[in-house]
């Protein structure tokens, strides 16, 4: 593998800045050319630079490659000023002043889910908060504390997992009981992202930059996760939804000219969306680990299993079993959990053995209060594992 330079945040900010400029300038036949420097910068950062550790390397590379597809949508595939509008916006922003276009573009760039925009996928996002500013801030503080505790408990327990240790055995070779522990990774990612989101909302609303209604929950209702399709489409975060949809629509309708109302087109777009998502994470893992691993396969398999799942549900519906009763949902939750336990190790296993947890030192109230280690490194013997050992092995 070639020697990589140190990651350059300034270049990344430049790519974002060019994307922002593309949203501010008025519609032009030349606006799409701005995508070329964005693409060049992002490819250089993803393949030729590194922040020096697995956790930051993977996350930053994913962020960088996501910007390629995000800016491709906003700069090339969509005439944003004529096609996209805020809720309540009556006329195109293209005729507005530079100042108005500046703030309009800033709102668009900072809202990947389309919150407050006409294109917001309202059926896939939980209702917007309607509480007062003070009540919203208090609720978000409590949620932040909840996510910190959940993350810390699961993370500290994970320190004792031999399959989560740098250089340890891989989850892909583990037995069923150990493979179950991959769900801990799902929980920590969920809690970590939700925690960051609630903190941002507190700062933004607290400073008066936004209002509570701008901050619907990042994740959907967990009770909806009784199929793999719903787990990805309704429960998991929606930060990639728009650019995945726009890019897959472009390939299906503009490039291949597939019929719009076709089962084949529907599933073709499904596979394209998961392929793009997989490619983003695949490059992220390569940037961090220096090798290609199973992240692309993991995401493509999601499309495969959703196709299979849809077929089973369609067959069941023909026999009158289409109503999602509590019992069916219960078995659905087991099915989703079983699928994640089977498929996730191919993605997260190499990350863990590559040192993801060792590099990702997070604030830990448990270890801080018990040992004075507020940003601990993985340790198989810690306060929680010791307590559990006394309970189960006394």
UniProtKB/TrEMBL annotation:
Residues 215-300 form the Wax synthase domain. The chain crosses the membrane at residues 6-25, 32-51, 57-77, 266-284, 296-318, 330-348. It is found in: Membrane. It is a multi-pass membrane protein. Its main location: membrane. One of its GO terms (cellular component) is membrane. GO terms for molecular function: O-acyltransferase activity. Keywords: Membrane, Transferase, Transmembrane, Transmembrane helix. It comes from the Eukaryota. GO terms for biological process: lipid metabolic process. Belongs to the wax synthase family. This is Predicted protein. It comes from Laccaria bicolor (strain S238N-H82 / ATCC MYA-4686) (Bicoloured deceiver).
